[in-house]
Design brief:
The structure holds two protein chains of two kinds. Chain A is mainly α. Chain A has one domain (about 15-210, about 235-395): ABC transporter involved in vitamin B12 uptake, BtuC. Chain A has helices at about 15-45, 60-75, 75-100, 110-130, 135-165, 165-185, 240-255, 255-265, 270-275, 280-305, 315-325, 330-355, 360-375, 380-385. By secondary structure, chain B is an all-alpha fold. Chain B has one domain (about 20-335): ABC transporter involved in vitamin B12 uptake, BtuC, CATH 1.10.3470. Chain B has helices spanning about 5-10, 15-25, 30-55, 60-85, 95-125, 130-150, 170, 175-185, 190-205, 210-220, 220-225, 230-255, 270-280, 285-305, 310-320, 320-335. In chain B, helix 3 packs across helix 8. Chain B is globular, with a radius of gyration of 22 Å. Classes of the chains: A mainly alpha, B mainly alpha. Chains A and B meet through helix 5, helix 6, helix 11 and helix 13 of A and helix 6, helix 13 and helix 16 of B.
């Protein structure tokens, strides 16, 4: 293969930077559009399976479905609130996965870390009892949730640093361990006293919920521009946490020594070690921070949306966050945008599922196609060459060889 | 008659062990049967992983391949049954034409998904973890989408394969009867799995293909210099391995049960990955690890059916049921971390191969 035709050694110039940003955006938009087209073809192909003898090969159905998706996500103030609510854990966990990517670590443990975050937050709520001051317990629950998540991230980090066990495998295994730990917690220590079934306390009934943001209905010139359909989730103040975390992580990555070391270790671990960086500590620290962010996603979802844990409490955030981090190119700005995109799709899916009746799993399929077209890198293949070198979809860890666990 | 066992059971600490042995012996039939059954899909997923990773391609998309195959097989069988009727079950495991069509469709689907993984990870040299993630997300999304649509249609499946019934005379054999019964009283996929394990173990370590596979997983450049087409070999292995994971899917939706449910693989692909690691990337080892993991499942299932009494029962009550379910994953982490015997991956596992000669 030919070497990447890039501007190697020519130094930084604003023009290159601008054009590389343009190409990154163009690639993402192309991938999303292509995924939407393929999804539309899929909807049309299987429209005959919809209830009420829906006509087969209905070409209009994709338009109806995407229209509903759009209006459910951004068509009303409440829809926007729901989008933000869905985007919050995606942004937090996406940052968690993206931070790992920057350090060359592939954190598949988002699911377990999210669950531990929820368990940590619920533990605080349970300990504080039925009548508690939300102003004290909610921040405390968020912190403890974040710490629980950080611990869940610390384990694979420490395992990698001490024994070289690859984090991809350990986080996958830990996901299941934490799933069962969560079930045990719900039926054991977190169980509501005197409850006939295994269920935790209701955080909102005990005064420990993240308050809902009430959005007034807006009528402009007598038109109900923003309908009051309250499908999906209510907006809650946990959104602020994501809004805060994005610039904080950006600052950490690009304006601090630690961030530089993380990125250096991700770009070339050996070089970073030779330069005197403590790469093992960096691995442990980065995985802990990543786990903490995913834990916060779990804590905000519990305190802001779900309020209560019952058996089967689980999340798809693990893989969703990987998608968000990849589409956002592990950059906090990109992750924020990607979280809004996928949060909007999750919010709109509810409307879509009701009105034209297209199943909400479409969103997962779209996620897969977006990722697929991103890695295939259609645009670059069409244009034959690209102004700057490098792979379109970098995880930071270009290759994550399991073999790394051998070379100690 | 029961004086000696009672006396043994009453010994402190050691008595618990005797009670455990007694409990296991009393429930041997049910535990061993469940164990073998649980082990089948895990083994098939693990074998798929062994085949991929021995040639140097990491595959965490096992779960997605299984799920896709489980759906496609079930759906194709149901559609075929709707078109041509179920027909009378043949004496051969109760196989019907729709079921056979379903198996064929599932295997083809599994191989196609694997082909996607092979193309992404071998030709495009995409990060193989990302490629596997794409497959897992896509399989869950697309089968979930189809299942949501179809579940509203009340589509009837094409039934399921029957188990081989071991003659009573054999089951009643002393000492080995229960073992023969546990191993043989399975459907076609279950029985085939045992044959595949032995076949792959021999092939991987005793055949030219096996040597070449291991060579391209350990040192692809060296393999290429002695004339092995590493790219082509990896392609063949990854695509062929898809058929194995697909059989795991067939077992789920057409042998163990006769229907499909969204997300019915329930992490079996990932346990398969664990079994592959604990089994040190060998077919026989993977099978052993799958049996070990499954025996934990068999034991915990047996606990819910007939809970032991006495001290043993009290002791087991102290252990939450979730612990047994988490145990396979804990074992895997312990093995990975090298606390008990280290498990080492093929050296070039997960490293995309780039030819030097190509311009």
């Amino acid at each position: 293969m030919s070497a990447p035709a890039g501007t190697a050694g020519s130094g930084f110039s604003l023009r290159d930077w601008g054009s590389s940003l343009f190409w990154t955006l163009a690639e993402s938009v192309t991938a999303i559009l292509l995924a939407v087209v393929v999804g539309g073809i899929g909807i049309t192909l299987f429209s005959g399976f919809l209830p009420n003898n829906h006509p087969a090969f209905d070409v209009g159905l994709p338009f109806a479905a995407y229209g509903a998706l759009w209006s459910g996500a951004v068509g009303s103030i409440n829809g926007i609130g729901s989008t933000l609510s869905y985007a919050t854990p995606l942004a937090l966990a996406g940052l968690g996965v993206g931070l790992g990517f920057k350090a060359g670590l592939f954190n598949i443990g988002g699911r377990g870390q999210f669950l531990m975050g929820s368990v940590g937050a619920m533990a605080v709520v349970t300990v504080m009892g039925p009548s508690q001051n939300g102003l004290i317990t909610v921040p405390l629950a968020l912190i403890v949730g974040g710490l629980f998540g950080a611990f869940a991230g610390f384990i694979p980090g420490a395992l990698k640093a001490t024994s070289g066990a690859h984090e991809v495998v350990t986080t996958i295994m830990l996901n299941y361990i934490f799933v069962f730990a969560t079930y045990w917690a719900i039926s054991g220590p977190l169980r509501l006293p005197n409850s006939p079934q295994a269920i935790t306390a209701d955080a909102s009934a005990w005064g420990a919920a993240l308050p809902t943001i009430h959005i007034p209905e807006v009528d402009i010139l007598g038109l109900h521009l923003f309908g009051a359909d309250v499908l999906g989730r209510d907006a809650h103040y946990g959104i602020l946490l994501a809004v805060l975390a994005l610039p904080v992580i950006w600052f950490l990555l690009f304006r601090t020594t630690l961030g530089f070391e993380i990125r250096a270790a991700g770009a070339n671990s050996d070089a970073a070690r030779y330069a005197g960086m403590k790469t093992k500590q960096l691995v442990v620290l980065t995985m802990s921070m990543a786990g903490g962010l995913c834990g916060l996603a779990g804590a905000t979802t519990l305190l802001g949306v779900v309020h209560q844990m019952a058996p089967g409490y689980d999340t798809t955030i693990g893989f969703d966050a990987i998608t968000v981090a990849l589409v956002g190119r592990s950059n906090p700005v990109g992750i924020g945008l990607a979280a809004l995109l996928f949060g909007g799709m999750r919010a709109g899916a509810q409307t879509m599922q009701i009105s034209p009746g297209v199943p909400g799993e479409l969103v997962d399929a779209l996620q897969m196609f977006i990722l697929l077209f991103l890695v295939i890198n259609i645009l670059r293949r069409w244009m034959a060459k690209r102004p700057t070198g490098g792979s379109a979809l970098t995880t930071g860890a270009e290759v994550a060889p399991l073999a790394a666990e051998v070379s100690k | 008659m029961s004086g000696i066992p009672d006396a043994l059971n009453a010994i402190p600490v050691l008595g618990i062990v005797f009670q455990l042995v007694g409990y296991l012996l009393a429930n041997l039939d049910s535990i061993s049967n469940t164990t073998v059954a649980i082990a089948v899909p895990i083994t098939l997923a693990a074998l798929c992983g062994v085949l991929c990773e021995r040639s140097g391609v990491v595959n965490i998309g096992l779960e997605g391949i299984m799920l896709t195959a489980a759906f496609v097989g079930w759906f194709a069988a149901a559609a075929a049954a709707g078109a041509i009727g179920t027909g009378t079950p043949s004496p051969f495991f109760g196989a019907t034409l729709p079921l056979i069509i379903g198996v064929a469709a599932a295997v083809v689907a599994g191989m196609l998904v694997s082909l996607l993984h092979a193309w992404l990870s071998i030709s495009l040299r995409v990060d193989q973890i990302i490629s596997g993630t794409i497959i897992n997300i896509g399989a869950a999304g697309i089968t979930g989408y189809m299942y949501s649509l179809i579940s509203a249609q009340s589509l009837v499946g094409a039934g399921q394969f029957e188990k081989y019934v071991v003659p009573q005379g054999v089951v009643d054999l002393p000492i080995v009867g229960w073992l023969i019964n546990a191993v043989l009283s399975q459907g076609p996929v279950g029985l085939l799995t045992i044959a595949i394990v032995i076949f792959l173990q021999v092939m991987l370590f005793r055949s030219r293909w096996g040597l070449r596979t291991r060579a391209s997983g350990e040192h692809p450049r060296a393999a290429e210099t002695v004339g092995i087409d590493v790219i082509w070999l990896r392609y063949r292995n990854v695509v062929a391995s898809g058929a194995l994971a697909a059989l795991g899917g067939v077992w789920l939706s057409m042998e163990q049960t006769g229907n499909f449910n969204a997300g019915m693989t329930q992490g079996r692909g990932f346990i398969g990955l664990a079994a592959m690691i604990v089994g040190r990337w060998t077919p026989l080892g993977a099978f052993g690890a799958a049996l070990l993991f499954a025996s934990v499942g068999g034991f915990s299932q047996s606990l819910t059916i007939s809970h032991p009494t006495g001290n043993l029962g009290d002791l087991i009550n102290l252990v939450p049921g979730e612990f047994w379910e988490a145990l396979p994953y804990i074992i895997t982490i312990v093995v990975l971390a090298g606390f008990i015997g280290r498990s080492i991956a093929p050296a070039a596992d997960g490293v995309p191969y780039e030819r030097e000669s190509a311009s």
